[in-house]
Write a structure and sequence with these properties.
Layout (H helix, E strand, L loop, with lengths): L2 E5 L1 H5 L16 H6 L4 E7 L6 H22 L2 E3 L3 H10 L2 E8 L8 H9 L2 E5 L23 H13 L2 E3 L5 H10 L4 E6 L13 H9 L3 E4 L3 H4 L9 H15 L4 E3 L19 H10 L4 H23 L3
Parallel strand pairs: 1-2, 2-4, 3-4, 4-5, 5-6, 6-7, 7-8, 8-9
Length: 318
């Protein structure tokens, strides 16, 4: 099974990309996903940190509408909200489109809007993007709240009750550790890498990876060359992605690592992985390097489905 925890395709839908056909450019469309053996992906509803709150809410709603239109046109995809649904879709040959929201700006300062987006199918919230907001400090800025804001703590508690994944990719280190402290459910980093291999502020330190494992959470390794290597020219390839997977597995264990490609959200791709259809090359190389099929199945999507299942079960007791 293959499930990707982060692609930015909804933004491309608003730029009029038709993902029912095999596009000459771009990283993700339904034909490429199927050639790549992908069973499901989290489509991220991205809004810029510079977008005003009302405009951010409108933009997120427009992306949700565009995803529904794309699914209807394709005819073999479905909005999906649980691992059980995803498993059923897989049996039926239906692609599972999960929804995530990248940047909490669209919920403004309203738990009611958070609940509304959950009702519309959103199953994770990336708390920040490249700027602090009303919820938390970001990795790019990180000087407003010292971590989560008071409202951000309410957001985390509400997400726990709803069974939404708290995503700390793009969050500051202080926000990360606040989420570990305040969340009653596992937290996730849907598209991040390892800071010990590449010093970018967006990546996770070993202490953060250990805390994520202790929290029973998940990290999806990002494919962006500049998160993979400090000197990213020439662009690193499949082997460097596996090095980040290897390190994450070493620090936080085989049950907590997956893939969060960031396809359609990155301007350049690793050498040899031009788009999502090339994913089988990654898994073949992992096998060549000694990963068992069971281990590959965990990293290629099993762990993502498992952490979502754990978070949904936690919501029943919060």
């Amino acid at each position: 099974m293959v499930y990707d925890s982060h692609v930015d395709t909804p933004s491309e839908l608003l730029r009029s990309r038709d993902i029912s056909i095999d596009n000459k450019s771009g990283h993700v469309d339904f034909p490429k996903l199927r050639r790549g053996g992908v069973d499901g992906s989290f489509f991220a509803l991205y809004t810029s940190a510079e977008t005003a709150p009302d405009a951010a809410t409108t933009h997120a709603m427009e992306m949700i509408a565009a995803v529904h239109d794309a699914i209807k046109k394709d005819g073999k995809a479905r909005i999906t909200v649980s691992p059980a649904q995803a498993a059923q879709n897989r049996e039926e040959g239906i692609f599972s489109v999960f929804l995530g929201m990248e940047n909490g700006s669209p919920i403004q300062e309203s738990l009611s809007l958070l609940r509304l987006f959950h009702h519309l199918g959103v199953r994770y919230l990336t708390l920040t993007h490249n700027g602090d907001n009303a919820i938390a400090d970001s990795a790019a800025q990180g000087n407003t709240w010292g971590g989560l804001s008071p409202f951000g703590r309410e957001v985390v508690a509400q997400m726990n009750r709803l069974g939404m994944m708290v995503d700390i990719s793009h969050a500051s280190d202080a926000t990360f550790f606040d989420c570990i402290r305040y969340s009653k459910a596992p937290i996730v980093a849907t598209h991040s890498c390892c800071r010990s291999l590449c010093g970018h502020r967006r990546n996770l330190t070993d202490d953060m990876l250990r805390a994520l494992a202790g929290n029973d959470g998940y990290v999806g390794i990002n494919f962006y060359p500049f998160f993979l290597a400090d000197d990213a020219k020439p662009y690193p390839g499949i082997g460097r992605i596996i090095e980040h997977i290897d390190h994450a597995v070493e620090i936080c264990g085989i049950d907590h690592v997956g893939i969060g490609s960031d396809f359609d959200g990155i301007e350049v791709t690793p050498t040899g992985l031009d788009d999502v259809s090339a994913l089988p090359l990654l898994f073949a190389e992992m096998k060549r390097r000694g990963y068992t099929q069971e281990q590959i199945d965990k990293i290629s999507g099993g762990n993502l489905m498992d952490v979502l299942d754990r978070i949904l079960k936690c919501s029943e007791s919060v």
